[in-house]
Amino acid sequence: MSEFPYLKDQDVVAVQRGPDPGGVGGAYRAFGETLRGLKTTMARLIEGPLTIQYPEEKTPVYPRFRGRHKLHRFEDTGLEKCVGCSLCAAACPADCIRVVAAENVPGERVSAGERYAAVYEINLSRCIFCGYCEIACPFDAITMGHDYEMADYDRDDLIFTKEMLLAESLERTPLKAEGE
Amino acid sequence: MLFLADTQLVEATWIMVVKSLVIFGVIFAILPLMTVLERKLIGRFQHRYGPNRVGPFGILQPLADVGKLLSKEAFMPANAVKSLFVLGPLLPVLSGVLALAIIPWGDVQDGVGLYGIDVPIGILYFFAVGSIAFYGVLLGGWSSGSKYSLLGAMRGAAQLISYEVAMGLALLGAIIMGGSLSLVDLVHAQGAIWFVVPQFVGFLIFMLAGFAETNRTPFDMPEADAELVQGFMTEYGGMRFGSFLLVEYMEILVVSGIAAAVFLGGWMGPGPGWLDPIWMLAKIMGLILFFIWVRATLPRLRYDQLMSLGWKVLLPLATLNVLVTAVLVVVT
To answer: What is the ipTM of this complex?
Structure first.
C-alpha cells in the first residue's frame, strides 16, 4: 500500500481514500463509472421484477408457521378434543383466551372428557401468536393454523368464538412445498 | 453551401390551425403516457413493477393522478405574493408549448410542412423560449414565501447560468456544419451523415446540459426532494403542482426533440414519406428512455459540482469543439 503524502509524519492511521476527483483522470473515471452505473441498472431491468403481487400472489408459509388458532374434534366420533381445563388460558402471556367449562350431560356429550368448554373465546386483537396455548394443551385440542389474513373493521369481530375456531378454516394461505 | 429557412412557403391559415391542434393533441396525449412509462420503467430498474393497478398495465394511472390533483385544494400560503405565485406554474407551460412549435416532425409534403412553424432563427428561438421556463421556477420559488422554495429557486438560477452557455456552444458546432439556425434546414443538412457522428462531443454536452435544463437527475437541484422537499414546488398544491410536473415532461420532450433534430437526423429514416413523423417520434422516444435510464442510475450532484462541471469542463470542451469544427469547415 502506498503511503499518502499528507500522512507521512503524523501518528494517525492511514485512511484508504479514493483517487483525486479532479483532472483528466478524474473526468475519465467519472465517465467510466457512469457507464458502469448505467450497465448495472440495465441489468436489473433485464432481470425483471421480484415483487410478489400480494393479494393475488402469496408467499407460502412454513409448516410450523404460527397463524390463527384452530380447535379440533376427534375425527371418528366428532367430539371436541377440548375438555375445558383452561391450561391454555393459564399459559397465555397476553391473557387473551377465555374458557368457561361445563359438565358433560350423558346422552348429549360435547367433548370426550368429563367436562367441555361451554365458552371458548380468543381475542385475536390481543393474541401475540406465541403458540404457548398449543404447547400447554394436554389433548392437542388447540393448534396454530397457517392463516395470517385476519384484518377486520371492528375490534369485536376479532374475538373468535368456539364455533369460529372449530369451523373448517378457509385455505387462504399456501403452504411451502417440502424442502422449499 | 448555405441553407436558409424556406420563408417563401406560405400556408393557408386553416392549415396552420389544424397543424397546431394536431401537434397539441398528440403531445398532450403523449405526456401522460410518459409519466406512466417513467414510473413503470423506474420500477423495473429497481426490481419492481411500478403502477399496474389502474386500467390495463396501469395505463390509466395518469387519469387517476390528475383526478386526485384536481380534487385537491389550490393552496396559497399566507405570505405568498399572490399574482406571481399564480403566474409561477403558467410560465413554464407557456414556454414548453411555444418550444414545441419548432420541432420538425417531417419535411414539406404536398405543400404542408410537417412542423408547427419553420423559424429562420430556430435554435435561438428555442433558447429564448426555453429560458422563460426558468422564470416560472424563480418566480414560483421566490413568491412562495418559504425558505425551501427560495433555496430551490436560487439553485435554479445558479444552475441556469452554469449550463446555458455550454448548451448554446454545443449546438453551435452543428449549426456551423449545417449552415443554418432553422431546425428544418439542419435536418436537411444531415442527409449524408447524422451530426451525432462528427459532433459527438457536442451531442454529449447538449445532453448533459439538457439534464440540467429539464431539472432531471443528476441535476435536479432546484427540486431536490430529499433535502429541499421539491424546492420551488414545496408550497404548490393541486393542479398548480400538477402543471409543474407536466412541464417537466414537456421540457424533456422538447430537449429530446431538439437533440433528435440537430444530432440524430430528425425525421430521416428508411421508408416512405408518411413514416417521417414516426421516425422522429421514435428518435424522441429513444432519448426519453435514455433520460429515464439516467434518472434510475445517477444520484444528485451538489450544486457547486454542477457549476464547476458547467464552467470548468463543459464550457471549455464546447468552445474547443466549436473552434475545431469552425477550422475544419473553413479548411474543407
So the answer is: 0.72
Query: Is B61 exposed, middle or buried, given 0-12, 13-18 or 19+ CB atoms closer than 10 A?
Result: buried
Q: What is the mean pLDDT of the segment spanning A117-127? A: 91
Whether the per-residue pLDDT at B284 is higher than 80: the answer is yes
CA dist B207 and B289 (Å) reads 13
- Phi, psi dihedral angles at B198 (to 5 degrees): -70, -25
Q: What's the domain range around A96?
A: 69-166
Question: Which H or E element spans position B257?
Answer: helix B238-263
Cα separation, B247 vs B136, whole angstroms: 10
Q: State the best of B38, B41, B44 to mutate against chain A, taking most chain A CBs within 10 Å.
A: B44
Interface A–B counts its CB contacts (< 8 A) at 36
Tell me, yes or no, whether A174 lies in a domain.
Answer: no
What are A's interface residues with B at a Cβ cutoff of 8 A? 27, 34, 37-38, 40-42, 44-45, 47-51, 53
Of the candidates B46, B294, B298, the beta carbon closest to that of A44 is on: B46
Judge whether A80 lies within some domain: yes
Phi, psi angle pair for A46, to nearest 5°: -70, -35
Residue B93 sits at φ, ψ, to 5 deg, of -60, -45
- The reply to whether A25 falls in a domain is yes
Task: Give the number of other Cβ atoms within 10 Å of residue B265's Cβ.
Answer: 21
Q: CB-CB: which of A37, A47, A49 is closest to B298?
A: A37
The model's confidence at residue A133, banded by pLDDT at 50, 70 and 90, is very high
Same domain, A91 and A156: yes
Contact of B43 with chain A, judged by CB distance below 8 Å, is answered with yes
Nearest to A51 among B48, B293, B297 (CB): B48
Q: Are residues A161 and A84 in the same domain?
A: yes
